[in-house]
Every structure is written in structure tokens, then in C-alpha cells.
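Session log. Operator J.P. requested a structure for one protein chain; no other inputs attached. Running the standard single-chain path with C-alpha cell output.
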Amino acid sequence: MKKEDLRIVYMGTPDFAVESLRRLVEGGYNVVGVITMPDKPIGRHQTELQDSPVKRYAVEQGLRVLQPEKLKDPTFLEELRSLQADLQIVVAFRMLPEAVWAMPRLGTFNLHAALLPQYRGAAPINWAIINGDKETGITTFFLDHEIDTGSVIQRVPVPILDTDNAEDVHDKLMLLGADLVVETVDNILADRVKPIPQSELQTDEPLRPAPKIFKETCRIDWTAGVKRTYDFVRGLSPYPAAWTELLNGGKRTVLKIYATEKEFCQVSEPVGRLLESNDGGLKVALSDGYLHLKTIQLAGKKRMDVADFMRGFRLDEGAIVE
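Structure written below.
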């Protein structure tokens, strides 16, 4: 079968999923339908509706778009069936019921932003950085009953630099992931795929999960030490952003932190003490050194470099973060 004859249904929602769809469309693959989340209410009164990035691209390309509220809805399943897909591709969408993923004759494969079986779950990029990993990767795998557990088609390792934040790794994996999606489709077409059960890829290393991140997950634990706190901040930057509470001059304010630098040394101040650094910036005392704050955002203010922030900020003696 030629790629022009292979009927593909594509499923995805955020920016991460647009690149793979673009590569398929521009590569001449036959995308017969796109499934994405319903339009999202935005604005103060939630009266405006915002298209997902995948929907915007699909509409621009004249592709058929379905936006089911419920994936088990009989009307949606009938519409999906009418597309007569040979293959379904999922990139950053949602958990599919068997009635959906088992529909195409060639199955449904997913692009996951980690080296499965590590980091199953909703936030693999964030957790790999938070945990201080030096490597992550991308995986294509066939969907199965349990989330992120299906047999692996292909994996590609990707290094994580010590200066990378979640956005940096996201962008790397987005581009490499699009390459892998196309390569996986080509290998399925050529009958070159030999899926490997994840149990055969598991090593003695404990499996680390990648659960969804909530606001309270993002609160900084200043007792964790310089490296772990540094990794925590970059693993959540720029979104949803690590945060702490700043106590300064009798006021308590939420402070988001987007970028820091490490300094390992002996420290005499208590953990959490906020100090002015030699270059006029801010640093936080930790058990094994200082964390220099580089990009921050005080509640109600804009995100800014610390140098700009300090021009309008008075740091009182005894100021702390906690």
C-alpha cells in the first residue's frame, strides 16, 4: 500500500501534537480525519471559546475535525467508523477506550515523550527534569488496555542538558517526535514493525511515574538542597512554574521562579533566608549552598529578570521564602 492510500486518523490537542500532524500532511500522507478536544472556554466570564492548536492547523488544511465530549458516545463512534481509518495516531491527547483504539485494522499507535517503560503518565518531560535525569527520549507504541503500557515500536534517546528547562526539552522532543511518527508510519506500511513488550525493555532500575502536575505539586521544598531545587525549578519552567511564598516586611506574597543558578558552598544562614547577592540580585540560602534567582514573577506583577525586579523592590533583613 502507498502512503497516499493509507487512511490515517490523527488525534491530538496541544502545540506538541501539531508538528507531527504537519509533517504527515506536508509529507503527502492521507489524513482523513483529526480528533481533538472540544473548544475551551476562556476569558473572564468563560464566554469565549478557544480552538486547540491542533484544530487550528487542521482547519487551515481543510481536514475533517471531530471534537467529541465523550469518546464512548455512540454518535462519535459512528462518525469515527465512517472515516474507515487503516491506522490511528495519537500524540498528546487523552486516554482512549478500547472501542476507539481497536477500531483500525492496523491498530493505533501513540507518541510518548519518554523512553517507555519509564515515565508513564501525563507529564513525562517535567518529571524527567525534576528528577535530574541526563537523558529522556521519545517512544512510539501500540495502544493497549492500560495507559502507556502497550508494545513498543521504536524508541529514540535524547540528552537533557543541565541548563535545559521543560520548554527546551519539549521543543526537542516535539521535532524529533514528528520524525519518529513519520518513520513509524513508513515502517508499518513496509511491514517492518516488530513490537517489543515493555516487560522486555525493563531494567533493574525502578520505574518512575509521570503523574499529572497540580498547583500544590509545584510548591518548592527549600530543604531539598541546591541541585534538587535547581532541577525542580527548571522542570516546571516556564509552565506551570515552581512557586514559593515570600515573607518580606511583614507581607506574605506568592513568588513564581522560572530560572536559577547553582552555587555550592558552606552556608551560615538558615534554609530559606533570602539575601542580596554580590551582583545586586537575589539568592536563597540552602543546606549546601545558594540558589541564585534569575527570572521570577511576584503575584500581580509581570515575569521579569531579577535585575529589573530589584530596581523596584526593597529587601528587608530577615526576608525568607517558604
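Operator note: Helices lie at 15-26, 53-60, 74-82, 98-101, 124-130, 166-189, 226-235, 306-311.
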